[in-house]
Amino acid sequence: MAEVTDIPMDNxxxxxxxxxxxxxxxxxxxxxxxxxxxxxxxxxxxxxxxNALRYIIMKNPExxxxxxxxxxxxxxxxxIRIQTYGNITALEALHQGMDNLSELCTHIEETFTEKVExxxxxxxxx
Length: 126
What we know:
Blueprint: E1 5-6, E2 12-15, E3 18-21, E4 25-27, E5 37-43, H1 47-58, E6 63-69, E7 77-84, H2 90-118
Antiparallel strand pairs: 1-4, 2-3, 4-5, 5-7, 6-7
């Protein structure tokens, strides 16, 4: 059986001002030689991240396919497969997808907070 390998980068990677813990993401066997098709494994994540990340990555016009699976319900692992048309690598598509999802979540949080404050709602802790 093929071994799972770490993505060949420093322990903390900065891409577009976002930092990622590469101990959490691993490159799975079966990547294409040119890097346009790769599978990754994300540790301690589930369908919540998988479906959102798949959706955001598929919005990229350079991505041909993106799918994810949970290998087993009792394992906290998320496998994601990305194939691109060749102008960017699968790793670049993954980074862009994570950046875009992070920006979207930040925007949602900021908009929600603004609306709560503008509406005069109380945000007291119990």
